[in-house]
């Protein structure tokens, strides 16, 4: 696996692609010299024989405290849209320009670098990756995340507080998911949402709760509950992974689930045919998965249901106890 690196004039370690993007406007147009502090100092001279008036001297001091690091660096595009370098760093790392010289992967861990760059993106902006990463780059993210398992320390990291196995509370998380190339019968799978919830007994479940613009047709597939299990490899390829979303037949005997969630029901095709989504942690609040239709028939050859799935946590709905 070849990994490319683009050095920067400002930092050779933390900002790999700064030279690929030039600013067409000043980097901080919204910061203006403000909050001037005016200090008046009166110097009084005692009375003298020749004068009974006090002499005063007034000095005005101006101080501006504006740091260039008060905001993340960004580029203002011709249409006025702001493109932040943190998100662009992730894109450039996954899809480097061809003229760059590749770095020997044995000298560093690509997954560790990708994790760091995702961590640099503020939580409220990580959803931008859903539009910035095309299906090819999502597949590339799956491949890079596979090198996490070369580091025992990195392999223990989790993208989700709910899935790290350390919480003893009932938690609920929402995730935006994007893929491409799903079967026509479930075209809504190209963009959907999931809800993950952890019960008080420690078991974790989830369900598909939204289907983008196909909300009307998605009701026919609802609620699509699945069980979250810790697994070490994708059954069909024997590649390493962190967990699996197992859909089964949908008839889960849930003793408790978040308020407002529907009762489990039998899954329609193809989700009733042993569909499993294998998941890898990529970075804080970001995961990538592969959906496989493994089949109830033991002689059936497993097949991918769609291309790789990018999953980004919805930070607008923080972890809540239900």
From TrEMBL:
It comes from the Eukaryota. PANTHER family: WD REPEAT PROTEIN. This is Uncharacterized protein. It comes from Helianthus annuus (Common sunflower). The lineage of its organism: Eukaryota, Viridiplantae, Streptophyta, Embryophyta, Tracheophyta.
């Amino acid at each position: 696996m070849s990994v490319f690196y683009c050095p920067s004039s400002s930092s050779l370690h933390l900002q790999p692609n700064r030279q690929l993007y030039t600013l067409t406007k000043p980097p901080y147009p919204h910061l203006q010299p403000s909050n001037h502090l005016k200090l008046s100092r009166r110097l009084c001279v005692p009375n003298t024989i020749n004068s009974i008036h006090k002499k005063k001297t007034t000095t005005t001091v101006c101080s501006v405290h504006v740091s260039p690091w008060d905001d993340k660096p960004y580029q203002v595009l011709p249409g006025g849209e702001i493109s932040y370098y943190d998100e662009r760093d992730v894109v450039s790392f996954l899809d480097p320009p061809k003229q760059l010289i590749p770095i020997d992967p044995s000298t560093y861990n690509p997954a560790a670098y990708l994790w760091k760059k995702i961590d640099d993106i503020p939580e409220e902006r990580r959803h931008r990756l859903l539009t910035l990463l095309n299906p090819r780059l999502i597949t590339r993210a799956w491949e890079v995340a596979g090198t996490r398992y070369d580091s025992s320390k990195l392999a223990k990291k989790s993208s989700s507080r709910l899935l790290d196995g350390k919480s003893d509370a009932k938690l609920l998380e929402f995730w935006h998911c994007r893929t491409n190339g799903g079967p026509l019968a479930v075209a809504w799978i190209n963009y959907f949402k999931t809800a993950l919830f952890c019960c008080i007994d420690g078991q974790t479940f989830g369900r598909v709760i939204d289907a983008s613009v196909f909300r009307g047709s998605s009701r026919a597939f609802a609620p699509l509950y699945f069980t979250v299990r810790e697994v070490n490899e994708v059954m069909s390829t024997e590649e390493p992974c962190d967990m699996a979303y197992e859909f089964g037949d949908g008839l889960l005997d849930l003793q408790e689930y978040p308020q407002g969630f529907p009762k489990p029901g039998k899954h329609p095709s193809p989700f009733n045919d042993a569909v499993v989504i294998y998941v890898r942690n990529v970075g804080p609040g970001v995961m990538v998965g592969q959906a496989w239709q493994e089949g109830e028939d033991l002689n059936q050859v497993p097949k991918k249901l769609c291309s790789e799935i990018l999953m980004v946590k919805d930070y607008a709905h923080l972890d809540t106890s239900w």
